[in-house]
Structures are given as structure tokens and as C-alpha cells.
Amino acid sequence: MSDSNFKKKYKDRIKKRSEEASTVRKIVSIVLTTIIIVLLVGGVSGYFYINNALQPVDPDDETQKNIKIPLGSSTSQIAQILEENNVINNALIFRFYTKFKNETGFQAGTYQFTSAMTIDQIIESLKTGKVRKDPVFSVTIPEGYTLEQIAESYAKELKFTKEEFMAKVNDREYVNQLIEQHPALLDDVILKQEIRYPLEGYLFASTYAFYVEDPSIEQIVEKMIKRTEKVVLPYRDAFAKRKMTLHEGITMASLLENEARTAENRKKIAGVFYNRIEKEMKLQTDPTVLYALGEHKDRVLYEDLEVESPYNTYHVKELPVGPISSFHKNAIEAAANPIESDYLYFLADDEGNIYYSKTLEEHNKLKEEHIS
């Protein structure tokens, strides 16, 4: 073999080995990177899995459930009973948690648990044999209450003032935090300059039970917003079909809350409002005038209709810039699923009866007959 051929073969062999070594290094690098990623993903996923398993099943569900823990039940059996009754998220994690914290001495008995209880509250009840402590206090927020009225209701029960509550719910930094935490419900639109109060209409009217002496304003707001999400979010698709945002849907619900008492009339009036919007007619609903004025009046005067405000539907076309109050569940249902009709007008008499008409002539005639 000539020197030149030998050198060529030697160089080819070296080149091949170098390529093989490079390929091996790449494969090793890919394998190690994959292992690291899997470990990291597994660790992060594991953390979130365990953390979620330790959270209350439903922080808003205070419905008490009678749950019997038989005499001689093991921790494993107790965990299984609690999971089956939707009191804890995961029986296995509950067992590991109690073992890690060295919690023992669980007592038999019939307990009143809720899906809103924390895992530590459940463990404490099982150790002491206490069925369920009563709430420290409850606050009922009636449908149709404005944010200011909600603030007054809580201020009567707790140590903070109405002004402190209002300052907190109007703090832009705090509201931005809420938007980040609840993106399915809250949107930057609530921070528009024309909006009087960002959270108006977003704190759901209901009865709220509290099991601590002095809940913070943040805890109260969080509890109320979660209730709003539970009620409102199922209607997102219905509003989307109407090419409406959720904010617009909530705004419509607040108008319906203030215009009618019954679920059926709210659906009928929703149909009237949508007909007027389609024909580019102003909604001309008196509750928006009162909200624009910022005061309650038994009767809206003609001079009141002239107030220039993005809330006054005698001044602006379509919906006001935002909600004017809280609302009942059937109001958001009516906003999402109105009764279709050809009506463009309605009026209510002194007894709350509502009359509908298709033309202004019919409307004026009904007004003469039923409005004193």
C-alpha cells in the first residue's frame, strides 16, 4: 500500500471516529437534557398536583354535609369517606399530609363538613370531635345593591369603614391584581376612565358566612368574586353568540335587575332592549339616570334625563359604560337568553305590572291608561 493511500485511509478513519464521537456527544447531550426537563416538569407538576389536592374542594360551597365516621375507622378509611363526599380532593394526599404532620387520634362520630373547609380545619374537627363551628357572622347582600351599599353592609358588621372598603376596591393596583387572578371574569375595560367603580356589578349579591373574627377586605372581595365567577361564567358562550363581551352581559343584567322583579319579565325586557339596540334606539331606562345622578329618587324628572353621563341611557346609545348594581342569577340568565319578540317599548304601573308595545303610539296609549 502506498504512503498516500495509507494516509488517506488513516485520515478517513480519524474523521469517521470524530464524527461518531460527535454524534455520541450530541445523543448524550440530548438524553441528559431530556432527563433534566422531565425531572423539572415532574417536580413542578408534582408540586402543583399536591398543592391543588390540599386546597378546599370548593371555597364558595358552605353547604353542610352530615358525614358519619364509623368507630374504629383508620386514617385511610376516613380519607376515602371524605373524598367520596367531596370534602377533600384526594384521599392519598390527605393520608400523606396527616402522616407528615403526625396527626392522629381522629374520633368517630357524625360530622357536618363542607366543601369550603380547609384540610387543617377538617383535621382539627376530627381530632376534637367537634362537628362544625357556626359562622362568626353572616352578611346578606340583597340583589340590586350598588358597590357603595355593599360597603355599608360590611362596615356595619366589621371594624373597617365604608370609606376604607371603597378605597380598597377602587385602588387601581389592587384591581389590576384581581384582573390577573381572575382573567376569565375581569378585564381591563373595568379600569376605563369613564367607569365610576371598577368592581361595580362584579361582587355577587348573596349571603356570605365568615368563620374568622376579622376577615380582611381582600378576603371578602375574593369570596364575592369567586361567587360571581360561579354564576356568570357559564353564560360566556351565550353572550359571545350575541357578539357581546362578558362585561356587556353583566351590564345588561344589572339593568334588568333594576327594571323588573320576576324572571319572566326580565327576559321579556331583555328582548325589548336587544330590539332597541338592533334598531339603534336609545334604551332610555330610568335606573341608569339615577345611577348617573348618584342618588335615589322616587320619581325621575324630565330635567334629570338631560344629565350628561356615560351611564345615562337617555344620553348614550346602546348599553351604559358599565354595570349599575349587583344582580340576581335570573337577571344574568335573562341577559343571556331573552324572550324574543317584536316589542320596542314597555312601562310599569304603580303595582309593578309591566305592559309591552310594538309602537310609540301603543306605548303612549298604555301610559295614559296605567300611569297616573
TrEMBL record:
Its main location: membrane. Functions as a peptidoglycan terminase that cleaves nascent peptidoglycan strands endolytically to terminate their elongation. This is Endolytic murein transglycosylase. The keyword Transmembrane helix applies. Belongs to the transglycosylase MltG family. The record marks 259 as: Important for catalytic activity. The chain crosses the membrane at residues 27-50. It is a single-pass membrane protein. It is an enzyme of class 4 (lyase). Its EC number is 4.2.2.29. It comes from the Bacteria. Keywords: Cell membrane, Cell wall biogenesis/degradation, Lyase, Membrane, Transmembrane, Transmembrane helix. It catalyses: a peptidoglycan chain = a peptidoglycan chain with N-acetyl-1,6-anhydromuramyl-[peptide] at the reducing end + a peptidoglycan chain with N-acetylglucosamine at the non-reducing end. InterPro entries: MLTG-like (IPR003770). Coiled coil: none annotated. It is found in: Cell membrane. It holds the Pfam family YceG.
